[in-house]
Write a structure and sequence with these properties.
- With 137 residues, the protein is an alpha+beta fold.
- It contains 2 helices and 6 strands; from the N terminus they run ββββαββα.
- It has a two-stranded antiparallel sheet with strand order 1-2. It has a two-stranded antiparallel sheet with strand order 3-4.
- Helix 1 packs antiparallel against helix 2.
- The longest helix is centred in the middle third of the chain and has 36 residues.
């Protein structure tokens, strides 16, 4: 009857948040029931924004910065596990009959080192983002 509720779906890399939507079509809602923390509607229908937009944006940037921080941390932790495993895990024998650690294989190095480099770059980006957010708060 003019009320539509839905789920937006999972966010990539941020599955702990569940976002949805509410669409009201030709439904009258009392002003007191509206969730208007930063926006107000006058009796004549005029919409006005309240508060400083920079403050609202800073809160959003703080959350996004923390997402980058947790992402790089988890990636580097996974790289650490993969590299340690690759050093310990031995497979196939060389000419002397000694098993070779799989870290010596070119493909294994390439896969692990690419992710390690990505994590280091993300760490640098996170530190820059964090310093900018702190500076502009």
């Amino acid at each position: 009857q003019g009320v539509e509720v839905g789920d937006i779906g999972p966010k990539l890399g941020y599955a702990s948040k569940d976002n949805g939507f509410l669409r009201l079509t030709k439904v009258r809602v009392p002003k007191i029931a509206l969730l208007g923390r930063y926006i107000s509607i006058a009796s004549d229908g005029t919409v006005t924004k309240q508060g400083n937009p920079k403050v609202m944006y800073a809160g959003m940037m703080s959350v996004r910065t923390s997402i980058v921080g947790s992402s790089y941390f988890n990636l580097l932790r996974a790289c650490l596990i993969g590299i340690r495993y690759s050093i310990q895990r031995r497979q196939f024998k060389d000419a002397e009959g000694v098993e070779i650690p799989i870290i010596r294989y070119q493909m294994q190095k390439q896969k692990l080192y690419q992710q390690l480099c990505r994590g280091i770059v993300m760490n640098s980006a996170f530190n820059q983002l964090r310093s900018n957010v702190v500076k502009n708060e």
